[in-house]
Amino acid sequence: MMSVETVGVLGLVCLFVMLAMRFSVALSMIIVGFFGTLLATQQKMLALGLPAERAASQGWKTALSNLSGETFEAASNYNLLVIPLFILMGNLAGVSGMSNGLFRAAYAFLGHLRGGLASATIAGCAGFAALSGSSLAAAVTMGRVALPEMRRFRYDDGLATGAVAAGGTLGFLIPPSGGMIIYAILTEQSIGQLFMAGIIPGILLSLLFIGVISLQVWRRPGLGPAGARSDLAEKRRALIGAAPITTVIGLTIAGMYTGFFTPVEASAFGAVLTFAIALAERKLSWRKMHLVALQTMSATSTIFLILIGAFVFIPFMSLTEIPTRMVEFLTALPIGSLGILAVVILVYIFLGTFLEGIAMLVLTLPVVMPIAAALGWDLVWFGIVVVIVLEMGMISPPVGINVFIVKSIAPDVPMLRIFAGIWPFWFAMILMLVLLIVFPQIALFLPQTMF
Amino acid sequence: MARTATSRPPAAETAPGPGFFDRWLVRIALATGGTVLTVMTLLCVVNVLIMRKLLAAPIVGAEDALILLLVTFVALSIPFGARTGAHIEIEVVSEMLPRRIALGQQLVARLAGGAFLALMAWQLAEAGSQAARFGEVTQQLELSYEPFYYLLALCFGLFAAIQIADAWRMMRTGAADMLSLEEE
Amino acid sequence: EQLTIASFLPGPHHLHTRMLGWFGEELEKQSGGELSIQLFPGGQLGAGPVQQYKRALEGVADMTLGVSAYTPTVFPKTMLAILPGSSNTAVESTGRLWDAYEAHLADEYDEVKLIALMTVAGNVISSTRDLSTLDAFAGAKLVPYAAMTQPILESLGAVPVQMPITDVYTGLSTGTIDAAYTSYSNITPPWNFWDVTPYFVENVPVQFAVLFLVMNKERYQSLSDEQRALIDSLSGRVLSMKGAESFDLADTLSKQQMADNPDKMKNSQVVRITDDERARVIARSQDGLQAIFAAYRAKGIADAEAVYQALNP
Ligand code: NA
Ligand code: NA
């Protein structure tokens, strides 16, 4: 007979082995969750003195019931409607080229400054982030527009690729955000409140990124030469070009802030409006619409399968009582709440070097959540902290998904060079974290004043 | 959101076009998933903006319908995502291994994954047959979840088949080509 | 032995601390430490309230706490306790539920061991307009406490709107809805309806929600005779009344908070339906009630009206 804790540790070891063997993250969680539940239930029954046969049959019954039940529960959650709908909105904006307008507008106003193209890239990313829940999509779409432009003006490759990779991560922090939706569902927080909490930190982090760029070109002007100055007519044209997309952003965010829309309603409204604008501007072909539908299915499948994984895995973790033990262990350490927060953040930064953001979120939350709750951290604020740390992981070596995306757009830039261009942005994120910890209101002000 | 699973840069984009099976998968995905996505989006907007906010006459059971549409869309998406490489994998370790061993590892992952997914499909069907006994219906119109369990079962079965087919392809060609959803 | 309880409610919910706290303590004390409970709150053993009944049947947990309305086809007769009638508090309604249990409801729980069955009361309407007369209901977009009472709202001339309680606060503040059935505990923190609601309407015909705590039957059978007898003595009406009292206490505490915080209530006004108006509302509701009974008959439940009468003597 084993203790449930032993079963839990065994399960975690199996999980890591399977991940290393390239089982998909979701499937690893489902499989370990299933067999773990089976074993933990069985051991629990044996401990009660039940005959082995009955213990085993109850183990199977529980595990099988969870396998189908949790799958259905994840797929039939009304609040999760926001996932396909926001993905649809972002894909429509991306495929129809509406995002170019954002970059051109930022370019018109910043392009003539030293490093201005890189700053315009950040601004464009921030704007696109408000339409798309994914940091990948933001990096790809803005990268395709901004990178060729920066190379034309002989920007340093490191600065150029770094700006795109880092700017892309804003997709996760500025609402809508796939990561926040998953966090909200797994921690039973309000999706709308988390979205609102991400707005000010998102804008601040964009400004920090721009500050980091300015600092670099101030010290070494050769990194980012000034581009052409746009005249008034060009500026006006650029502004008009960006108007439709900013309208969509403004309406959906204001709608959620004032409470006119729930997140689900905002996502449907945003998707339909984006579609209507793209259609009116004749930027959608039949082929592009097909592509949008298929991309939406593919991304929906990513998120939902991993959510199913988390839903099957969480009951197993609860049964093993490992989260409870972790809380007991950490809260007994003489380092205080801030010390524990530091430990949690360091662990996340470490995991982020090689794990993918959403995967990391679902893998860690079952253990980290009880800790946050036990220490009385505001779960909305903590969500924003977690999202920023996940973003750091997206651009940190060896596995930085945004870096790979940038590499695929600029294949001739060596990987090392991209990572070298990244670290200033990475420190901007650290600074952002410190600000958030010192001034939690940065995240909490909007959700507390919204309806 | 996370659009592609492979953290490896999609360098080999000159791969041959999709095969017979993939072409049909795309067609079916478009016809079914595209339709469901459209209906779902429109119903959500119409119910909220027009019926509820403007006319103060919400459609009875709209939430029920949206939930069932969501289940359908998710079910259809999952096997499709299996072909586009949508399911996140962690490649750090396998990239450090010799090619043959890494390939063998992936082969094991696909075969074992396929086998487990088949079990999952069976259990979803089993749960469907029990749905009535457990009172699993939508809350307003009391529509049974049973057929939607069967649909999930079917789609997970397809997912299992795709994993096995991927393993087969890997054994023959030494690589697992995914369906690319890039523009052009 | 430890009995696991799966609950979808958040960890510190008063049902956990008061009702289940009492249950666990008594079990442990009276069994000499042989029996105890282990609570898994917040959906730890499985997400959401919908599958709670199933989880008890399949033994995912030894006991599960759930809401009848999430599996309406399993508990149609129990759900008749949701309808407004002669009860005004959770304690009254729960008592009547148990008075009628043996004769009318027991067969709905054949597959499980019923541990507790209790109601929570939706006894105050949070509203952006004064709903203290029957006529004021006409055209009001009103969120019922339970979806099954929609025909009653329709018979009053109101427009029933379905909305999760989590969206009601927003709905009221933005005018998406005009009013919602709530309990007093929604007015004060953590819900804070007092921040956005101009009117709280009292003395309304009360709507209820029914909660159940059920145990896996095989697990129950696996216990010794003494242990079963102990569970029997601590469960049923006794434990259910603890739950109902806990809900009523939450209301009382909230009323106290409303009285103690006049600054919080400065934008809100408590209005009361007079007994005469209330009688008119109830009279007008009869069409809706009959429509509900007719729907029951169509589903093959002929004695719905009789059960309702038994629940509202
Ligand atoms: Na975003
Ligand atoms: Na990383």
From TrEMBL, chain A:
Matching InterPro entries: DctM (IPR010656), TRAP_DctM (IPR004681)
Keywords: Cell inner membrane, Cell membrane, Membrane, Transmembrane, Transmembrane helix, Transport
Compartment(s): Cell inner membrane
Transmembrane segments: 6-39, 78-98, 118-147, 159-185, 191-218, 238-257, 263-280, 292-317, 329-351, 358-375, 381-406, 418-446
CC per GO annotation: plasma membrane
Highest taxon, organism lineage: Bacteria
Ranges of residues in domain TRAP C4-dicarboxylate transport system permease DctM subunit: 12-442
Role description: Part of the tripartite ATP-independent periplasmic (TRAP) transport system.
Subunit field text: The complex comprises the extracytoplasmic solute receptor protein and the two transmembrane proteins.
Protein name: TRAP transporter large permease protein
Organism: Pseudooceanicola lipolyticus
From TrEMBL, chain B:
One cellular-component annotation, GO: plasma membrane
Transmembrane segments: 28-50, 65-86, 107-125, 148-168
A Gene Ontology molecular function term of the record: transmembrane transporter activity
A Pfam short name: DctQ
Keyword field: Cell inner membrane, Cell membrane, Membrane, Transmembrane, Transmembrane helix, Transport
Places the protein is found: Cell inner membrane
Membrane topology: Multi-pass membrane protein
Annotated GO biological process: C4-dicarboxylate transport
Superkingdom classification of source: Bacteria
Domain Tripartite ATP-independent periplasmic transporters DctQ component, chain residue ranges per copy: 43-172
Main location: membrane
Functional description taken from the UniProt entry: Part of the tripartite ATP-independent periplasmic (TRAP) transport system.
Subunit structure: The complex comprises the extracytoplasmic solute receptor protein and the two transmembrane proteins.
Family: Belongs to the TRAP transporter small permease family.
Protein name: TRAP transporter small permease protein
Organism: Pseudooceanicola lipolyticus
Taxon lineage: Bacteria, Pseudomonadati, Pseudomonadota, Alphaproteobacteria, Rhodobacterales
